[in-house]
Amino acid sequence: MSDSIQFACDTPNGATLSVRLHPGAKKNAVTGLHDGAVKIALNAPPVDGKANEALIAFVAERLSIPRSRVALVAGTTSRSKTLRVTGKSAAEVEAALSPTVDA
Q1: Looking at residue 77, what DSSP letter applies?
Q2: Does residue 6 belong to any structural domain of this protein?
Q3: Run of H or E including 57
Q4: For helices 50-63 and 90-97, what crossing angle results, to 10°?
Q5: CATH number of the structural domain spanning residue 85
Q6: What tens-digit pLDDT sequence spans the chain (103 residues)?
Q7: CA dihedral 35, 40, 44, 46 (to 10 degrees)
Q8: pTM of the model
Q9: What is the total count of domains within the chain?
Q10: Coil, strand or helix: which one is 22?
Q11: What are the two backbone dihedrals, phi and then psi, of residue 51, each rounded to the nearest 5 degrees?
């Protein structure tokens, strides 16, 4: 079993992050890895962009950066999303968002 699954990639000014979102959960948490993406559960409902806003806020908080440095670049209406994080390397993103549950 390998725990070197990468869900973030370096870009010239930061990193991109693959996310598998579970909206409407009981609590906000990183819950694991799925198909090369980090699984994030959020208690926000999947309506009117609320889950997307909550996802950006959650990732920014975990990375200790302003929300303006996290942008949704793909997957607006999908559970599979791609985020761009400015000013953080892929390694920093993965360290901050690594699942804390044992697989």
Answers
A1: T
A2: no
A3: helix 50-63
A4: 100
A5: 3.30.1200.10
A6: 344 568 999 999 999 999 999 999 999 999 999 889 999 999 999 988 999 999 999 999 999 999 999 999 999 999 999 999 999 999 999 999 988 644 3
A7: -10
A8: 0.90
A9: 1
A10: strand
A11: -65, -40
Characterise 66 by phi-psi region: left (phi > 0), alpha (psi -120 to 50), beta (else).
Answer: beta
Say if strands 29-34 and 37-41 run parallel, antiparallel, or are unpaired. antiparallel
- By CB neighbour count within 10 A (0-12 exposed, 13-18 middle, 19+ buried), where does 102 fall? exposed
7 within a domain of the structure (yes/no): no
| Beta strand pairing call for 37-41 and 14-22 | parallel
Asked if residue 37 belongs to a domain, the reply is yes
Q: Do the Cβ atoms of 21 and 49 come closer than 8 Å?
A: no
Give me the amino acid identity at 87. G
29 lies in which domain range?
Answer: 15-97
